[in-house]
Amino acid sequence: MAKSNLIVPSASVPNADGQVLSITPQSAGWDYVGFEVYRLQTGQTLTRETGSEEVCLVLISGLANVATAKEKWERIGERMSVFEQKPPYSVYVPNADHYVLEAVTDVEVAVCKAPGKGTYPARLIAPSEITPEVRGKGNAERYIHNILPENQPADSLLVVEVFTPNGHWSSYPPHKHDKNNLPVESYLEETYYHKVQPEHGFAIQRVYNDDRTLDETLAVRNGEAVLVPEGYHPVSAPPGYDVYYLNVMAGPVRTWKFYNDPDHEWIFKEWTK
User: Fold this and answer.
1) Which CATH number does the domain housing residue 106 bear?
2) I want to staple 55 with a disulfide (CB 3.0 to 4.6 A). Which of 61, 93, 187, 231 is the partner?
3) Closest to 106 (Cα-Cα) out of 62, 145, 59
4) What's the top EC group for this one (predicted)?
């Protein structure tokens, strides 16, 4: 069976720059979100200009030195696997800047991109700045690291990572954010970058809209990304397999206002009993 157009796989072998995954607004067919993943060997360097985009570098695993035009941070990073569930080290880099990332150990780094306005300087986002959050209840309980939430400075980017224990659901009850209808709902494009433990497992993600002109149920493997151009997008972690994902969102207004699927909103009321 052919892969869904909503799934973007990682390459099994990095290219010369270490890149294993690339999503651009052009490849996704939208306007705001870009997302890349690099796997660098110890001593390998990644150098990029940010151009018109602001960037959030998220150290998925490993230690690195990172420099921008005016700043430098040595040996940042701590976790060797996302499933240690430690908050990550991240670096915000504005547009019209550059970054040089040198791998101190083998490194996996996500490069989250969206349009920038040059409002804020480059900065380190340390784990101590991220307060772990619990969402949901029962078998929809999951654990959140808000890396770049809307109450922290950026021009467009919203970045968050989620840990879904095996047998649990997340992004649930289903919600969407595909209409520019503030204050009720904001338009935000979104990518999900999935990791699965053990790696040979899978996650299930459904992406569907109200009239079901979009309605896909996806089996997502370790290292694959899912595009959410519109609609609701819940995730399920099968028994035996813990699931992590890194979300990147951006749109015309930097605010996360979501609309719950009315068919399933009753579940929230059950949680308050």
Assistant:
1) 2.60.120.10
2) 93
3) 62
4) isomerase
**Amino acid letter, residue 270:** E
Residue 158 is assigned to a structural domain of this protein: yes
Look up the domain containing 216 and give its range.
14-272
Across-strand partners of 195? Answer: 244
The SS3 assignment for 94 reads coil
Q: For the whole prediction, is pTM greater than 0.90?
A: yes
- Asked if the structure places residue 242 within a domain, the reply is yes
Q: What are the CA-CA distances from residue 270 to residues 133, 135, 140, 167, 216 (Å)?
A: 20, 15, 12, 19, 27
Contact 249, 165 (CB under 8 A): no
Query: Is residue 9 in some structural domain?
Result: no
Which amino acid is residue 235, in one-letter code?
Answer: V
pLDDT tens digits along 219-267: 999 999 999 999 999 999 999 999 999 999 999 999 999 999 999 999 9
How many other C-beta atoms can be found within 10 angstroms of the C-beta atom of residue 123?
A: 17
Residue 6: CB atoms within 10 Å? 19
Token pair for residue 3?
Answer: 């892969």
Chain position carrying tokens 């430098």: 72
Express each pLDDT in 112-162 by its tens digit.
999 999 999 999 999 999 999 999 999 999 999 999 999 999 999 999 999
At residue 182, φ and ψ (nearest 5 deg) are -70, 145
User: What tokens were used for 181?
Assistant: 């209808």
Q: Is 263 helix (H, G, I), strand (E, B) or coil?
A: helix
